[in-house]
Amino acid sequence: MYKLIALDVNGTLLTDRKELTEEVIEAVRKAKKRGSKIVLCTERSYDGIVKVVHDLGNQYVDYAICFNGALVKDAKMHTTLSRVNLTKDDLVYLYQISERIGCSVHFDDEHSIYTPNQHIGKYTVQEAYYNNTPLYYRNAYDLPEHFIPSKAIFSEEKNKLDSSIKKLPKDFFSKFHAIKSGPNFFEILNSTASKGNALKALCERLGVDPLDVLAIGDHENDLSMLAFAGKSVAMENADRAVLHIADDVTASNNQNGVAAAINKYVLEQDE
């Protein structure tokens, strides 16, 4: 039996309507009852998955890897286990880059989102909505002292965003860990932050061997997590790169794919 199950949230655990199905809830709960630790691994903030945790059942979720690995929380004690951040200087640099390549930008910390764009991008608004997080306009050179940024996001329509990414300076990817977390979102983090690194550190803390980890995901930001896990499963709706790296493919997020994978690799193995 897999001792730890790492679950991406958007496009994996949730349907396209951002909902949990009864089948997925039941499978997660059964896996937890049989001894697996449940870890939600997401680009969202911790505040942004409170409803997901509540709907699964607070007693059924053990840890949350948030902001694509920049923040790790104990979901029962609500304490921070680890975090890596961007600096205020990073944000000024990223704002200048966003202006140069022509896309919207916003910055996230645990409890707020700031954007230096006077004309606030629609995907910035979407990010605030799905994370249930207050959104503020603020000059990039004058962010609040208490603001501790976990990540920055460039956002635009897919084709425009993909074109903008190609304009980034050559040294950009050595300065930051940057990945797409969806068609319209390009996330920029501390160079050490990733779902894979966070999951590795959590497993070391818990004494869990990578071979005992089942990871399920769908997008580019899940690649490091899937590469770390002993068993990696891609959603049917996953990106091509995810489908290529995964050990197996389950049904889509709209067809209870997480439930099917948990049933196959955890619940049926115990019968």
Describe this structure in words.
The protein is 35% helix and 23% strand. The protein is built from eleven helices and 14 strands. Strands 5-4-3-2-1-12-13-14 form an eight-stranded mixed beta sheet, with helices on both faces. The protein has a six-stranded mixed beta sheet with strand order 8-7-6-9-11-10, with helices on both faces. The longest helix has 14 residues, at 88-101. The protein is globular, with a radius of gyration of 18 Å.
What order do the helices and strands come in, and which of them pair?
Layout: E1 4-8, H1 9-13, H2 22-33, E2 37-41, H3 50-56, E3 63-66, E4 71-74, E5 79-83, H4 88-101, E6 104-108, E7 113-115, H5 122-131, E8 135-137, E9 151-155, H6 158-165, H7 172-175, E10 176-182, E11 185-190, H8 195-206, E12 213-217, H9 223-228, E13 231-234, H10 240-245, E14 248-249, H11 257-267
Helix pairs in contact: 2-11
